[in-house]
Structures are given as C-alpha cells and as structure tokens.
C-alpha cells in the first residue's frame, strides 16, 4: 500500500483514530475517521493530535478533506475524478449545461465512454491507500527552482494544457500522471505528448465534446468554427488513455469556493475558474495530500516571465473576460493559509 521508503502509519497515530478493516487480500487496512466515508470537521487541536507526529514524507490519509471541512463544512469528499458509464446519476451536474454540467451532451458522452472503457487512474494508483498529489502550474516562478526531482516524487503529478516537460525537467520534473486540457489548450504537435500519461478532457462548451469524440475515434476534424483559437487535430492517445473530468469540480470551484456569479448556471463574464483551480478542486476530493507549484502571477514584476517555458512577460496579462483572477487568488490563499494545500513556489 505504501512505498518501502515510508514507515507504517500505525506507528505514528494514536489508536482511537485508526480502524482496521480486512481487504480482499486479507491484509489489514488503516481507515481514518476523516477519510472518504466520514468528513467530520476537526478542530486544529484534533488535527495536530492526529497528524502532528508524522515524519515528513509520510502520507497522511484524509488530511486534505479533514482540513477542508474545517473551513468549508459542506465539503463532501466523495466525488469521482472522471465520468464513468453511470455518469447520468450525478445529480449535481446533470441539470447544468457545460461547463458546469453535461446537460444535452449525454448521448455523445455515452459514445465516448463506450470507447474509452476505463474510468480511473489505473490499477496501481487506484489501489493506493493514501495519495500524495501535486498540481504543476505553468508559471514562470518555476524557473530556476530545481524542483524537478521533488515534483517527480509525488504519487500523482498533474500538468495543465500544453506546458512542456522536455528540456525543463530540472525545474518541473519529467513525470506526468495526467494532463488536463480542453480543445484550445491541448498540445497540437503529436510528438510533444509524453508517454504513459492520461489525456484528461475538461469541457467548457458543448462543441468541446464533439471535438473529443473526433479525437477518441480518430476522425478527421470537421471544422473549427466556434473555437476561440486553433485546436489540436490529432491526439496520439488510445481511447483507453483518455478520460472526461467530472464537471462538478468546475461548478464547485466557481460557485461554492470562489463565489463567482451563478448567471443561471450558464457561462458568463467572470464566472469560470481557471483550469489550475479546477485541478486543485479535483485533487481535494481525490487526494489525501495536495501540493501545488508554479501558481501565482506577481503584477509588481512586469518584466518577469509569465510562463516557465517562454519569454512572454508578466505585463502581457490582460483582464480576463471569463476569469476573476483576484477572487480566485483569495480562495487559493485561503487554502494555503489554512494548510489545506502546500505551495512549493510560494507564488499564491
């Protein structure tokens, strides 16, 4: 369940916080009170008692969820990372149009999921009793930090859009568990895709699902009208390596966490969270520890690089029509301040 470098958690935690259940293999499995089955909010003192004696590097089961419920009491950990064949049962998203749900897209999603056949992270990662996840942003703040080996040490490494790995391994690592993207953000050159990573699709409009279907079934892209910039014409991934991100994470980040305008559940001015915050929200539900790197824009440094992989400067940022960067930053700072997430580059 744990790598050989990690000491058994039973040695660190007081027995009142541990229950043992039997698994199919007959081995005992530690199940903590703040795990998926129970999201009771704990006081700071209880959290210190529960996790305070763990040595650095030991995964803390249920930690992110326990911390999250302390400041967001309505936070419920169980939320599937990806859509599966039972997606129509997801009551919180079935009545919303994209990006906050999948209303009107049920038939096309069904056809896509029939082809992908897989709806998890894979047997090894899905079986981990405790998951340490890192969301790697694209910010220039990653440059010259030499965090690559540290990033690669996490169980799950999440990357966003077309941010490259090749040539930047010293600072951003070389491991990619999944790459979350959408049509306009996807890598357009097939040779730039890393091997063995999941292609995770996040839809922001109905047209996006049509694009994904063409990528899954290796069909010729039939027109690009309706996209706001050029899109990939081919994704070098087998259908079994593709996933559809649960749109609940977009909805929850926007309306419950950041407090963006509902706009009758439709995409509007300033009510779409950035993909990075969506990824963090996903991780809070599905990972026990959540770490970020490469997040944050410092507008007081207009000549600093915007991204770690190009020379565009910070001053190139313009006011976004779809995002509310300032409100989003408030939310992320709240997570860092409450020790729900750890920011390796201190940019938030």
Automatic annotation (TrEMBL):
GO CC terms in record: Golgi cisterna membrane; Golgi membrane
Gene3D superfamilies in UniProt: Glycosyl transferase family 29
Pathway: Protein modification; protein glycosylation
Keyword hit for Ribonucleoprotein: no
InterPro entries membership: Glyco_trans_29 (IPR001675), Glycosyltransferase_29 (IPR051142), GT29-like_sf (IPR038578), Sialyl_trans (IPR012163)
Localization: Golgi apparatus membrane; Golgi apparatus, Golgi stack membrane
Pfam families on file: Glyco_transf_29
Domain of life: Eukaryota
Substrates-to-products reaction catalysed: a beta-D-galactosyl-(1->4)-N-acetyl-beta-D-glucosaminyl derivative + CMP-N-acetyl-beta-neuraminate = an N-acetyl-alpha-neuraminyl-(2->3)-beta-D-galactosyl-(1->4)-N-acetyl-beta-D-glucosaminyl derivative + CMP + H(+)
Membrane topology (UniProt): Single-pass type II membrane protein
Record-listed E.C. numbers: 2.4.3.6
GO molecular function, one term: N-acetyllactosaminide alpha-2,3-sialyltransferase activity
Keywords from the UniProt entry: Disulfide bond, Glycoprotein, Glycosyltransferase, Golgi apparatus, Membrane, Signal-anchor, Transferase, Transmembrane, Transmembrane helix
Family listed: Belongs to the glycosyltransferase 29 family.
Protein name per UniProt: CMP-N-acetylneuraminate-beta-1,4-galactoside alpha-2,3-sialyltransferase
Source species: Oncorhynchus tshawytscha
Gene name in the database record: LOC112260287
């Amino acid at each position: 369940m744990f790598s050989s470098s990690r000491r058994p958690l039973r040695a660190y935690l007081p027995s009142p916080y541990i229950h043992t259940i039997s698994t199919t293999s007959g081995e005992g499995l530690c199940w903590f009170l703040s795990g998926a089955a129970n999201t009771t909010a704990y006081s700071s003192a209880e959290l210190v008692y529960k996790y305070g004696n763990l040595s650095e590097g030991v995964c803390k089961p249920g930690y992110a969820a326990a911390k999250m419920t302390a400041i967001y009491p309505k936070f419920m950990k169980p939320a599937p990372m990806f859509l599966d064949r039972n997606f129509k049962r997801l009551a919180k998203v079935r009545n919303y149009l994209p990006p906050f749900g999948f209303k009107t897209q049920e038939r096309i999603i069904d056809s896509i999921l029939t082809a992908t056949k897989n709806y998890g992270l894979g047997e090894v990662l899905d079986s981990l009793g405790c998951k340490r996840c890192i969301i790697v942003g694209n910010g220039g703040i990653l440059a010259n930090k030499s965090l690559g080996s540290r990033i690669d040490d996490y169980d799950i490494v999440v990357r966003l859009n077309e941010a490259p790995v090749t040539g930047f391994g010293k600072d951003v690592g070389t491991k990619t568990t999944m790459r979350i993207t959408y049509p306009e953000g996807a890598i357009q050159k097939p040779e730039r895709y890393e091997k063995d990573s999941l292609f995770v699709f996040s839809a922001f409009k109905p047209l996006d699902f049509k694009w994904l279907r063409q990528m899954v079934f290796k069909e010729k892209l039939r027109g690009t009208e309706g996209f706001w910039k050029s899109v990939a014409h081919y994704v070098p991934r087998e259908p079994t390596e593709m996933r559809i991100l649960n749109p609940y994470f977009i909805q929850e980040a926007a309306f419950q966490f950041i407090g963006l305008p509902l706009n009758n559940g439709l995409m509007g001015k300033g009510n779409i969270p950035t993909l990075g915050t969506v990824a963090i929200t996903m991780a809070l539900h599905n990972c026990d520890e959540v770490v970020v790197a490469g997040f944050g824009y410092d507008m007081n440094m207009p000549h600093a690089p915007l991204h770690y992989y190009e020379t565009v400067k910070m001053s190139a940022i313009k006011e976004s029509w779809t995002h509310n960067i300032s409100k989003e930053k408030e939310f992320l700072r709240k997570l860092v301040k409450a020790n729900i997430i750890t920011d390796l580059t201190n940019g938030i």
